[in-house]
Design goal:
The protein has helices spanning about 20-30, 90-100, 165-175, 225-240, 300-305; strands at about 10-15, 30-40, 45-50, 60-65, 80-85, 105-110, 115-120, 125-130, 155-160, 175-180, 185-190, 200-205, 215-225, 250, 255-260, 265-275. The protein is an alpha+beta fold and about 300 residues long. The chain has one domain (about 10-305): 2,3-Dihydroxybiphenyl 1,2-Dioxygenase, domain 1 (Roll). The longest helix is centred in the last third of the chain and has 13 residues, at about 225-240.
Amino acid sequence: MEKLIKGLHHVTSMAADAKENNRFFTKTLGLRRVKKTVNFDSPEVYHLYYGDEIGTPGSVMTYFPFGPMPRGKRGVGEVGITEFAVPEGTLGFWQQHLVEKNVSGLREETFLGERRLAFDGPDGDSFALVEADPAGRTAWSGDGIGRDEAIVGFHGARFRLRDAAATGELLQFMGYELDETDGAVTRYRIEGGNAARTIDLEERPNADHANQGAGSVHHIAFAVEDRAAQLKVREALMDTGYQVTPVIDRDYFWAIYFRTPGGVIFEVATNEPGFDRDEDTASLGEALKLPERYRPYREQIEKRLPEIA
């Protein structure tokens, strides 16, 4: 395959409570809510997007807050940790800040020479802040965290798998290069794209399979520049034997999906048209935006959705 993949585009997870999810990502982590819309298949459920000022691909964490639901069971066959990049020398700030916000699961770690602060989300989600070169990225600083400390986007993600070999081969087919191994974790890195460039595969041959629920990653999306590049990726994947969906219009990007050998759902999403296609940059994420087919039902939909700030 040509080197068409540009790193991560977004990560989409599931949550229980929309208000708590919105509060955590905007007030605790200081990200900007760049879009408030609904699930394409369940319009009574929000689809909330959080990222940098404009929702740059490689910065956007998205959630489906389904309401009361069991928490996911951690295991293999899932994205186990979503990693955000913060400027070097800021983990002390974040340790204190997250303690003040009563965030659980805090623990400092080092992996492949990188300093990390692991922590839990409100639904038992697994996250890490990784000190890294901002690589030209500019953080959002409108939610109480200064630009010098703020999250600049994704660093990468860690999958947990019973057997990592086939997924590693897939990543290399997609343009990732085999990097380093530390214990049971092997890193793959892609160059020439955005700064959300690492995928770590953690092999756990005897672990139970994960069960999805609140706090689970639903799918992880990889970025391509445009629809032409996406079609080339789709063709290459299908020629290799993967069952790939047709291209789907998600309003702010076009998407294709397929399931990997390890069980993780991959999406390939375009960098175009972006989150400012239907509202000004200054007001991103403020108004409820609906897919075209749901616009005639706005009044009914708004009555069913919980209010969030």
